[in-house]
């Protein structure tokens, strides 16, 4: 088994740290993401502020952004 590529975790952190910038760039509102990810708004805002989305949540968010 080969070693785990550290850049995977670094990229995950980078997406969380810059998520608000991505939303602004693509013109996506928090309301739109909340409706399309089933993450409650207060939870979404807290996780956005704390950069604490799970991998599953971040994948849902990325899917909505990329539509």
Structural descriptors:
single chain, 67 residues, mainly alpha, elongated
Secondary structure layout:
Blueprint: H1 6-17, H2 19-26, H3 30-37, H4 41-50, H5 55-65
Briefly note the structural class of the backbone.
mainly alpha
Separation, N- and C-terminal Cα atoms: 35 Å
What shape does the CA trace take? elongated
> Number of DSSP strands?
0
Give the mean pLDDT. 93
Order of helices and strands: HHHHH
Number of helices: 5
Cα Rg: 13 Å
Stretches where pLDDT is under 50 for at least 5 consecutive residues are: none
Assign a percent range to the helix content.
over 70%
Percentage of residues in DSSP E strands:
under 5%
Tell me the major beta sheet. Answer: none
Descriptive report:
Helix content is 73%, strand content 0%. The chain is built from five helices and no strands. It has helices at residues 6-17, 19-26, 30-37, 41-50, 55-65. The mean pLDDT is 93.
Short overview:
The chain has 67 residues and is mostly helical. 73% of the residues lie in helices and 0% in strands. The chain is built from five helices and no strands.
């Amino acid at each position: 088994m080969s070693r785990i590529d550290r850049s995977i975790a670094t990229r995950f952190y980078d997406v969380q740290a810059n998520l608000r910038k991505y939303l602004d760039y693509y013109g996506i509102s928090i309301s739109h993401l909340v409706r399309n990810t089933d993450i409650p708004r207060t939870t979404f805002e807290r996780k956005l502020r704390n950069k604490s989305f799970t991998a599953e949540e971040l994948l849902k968010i990325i899917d909505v952004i990329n539509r």
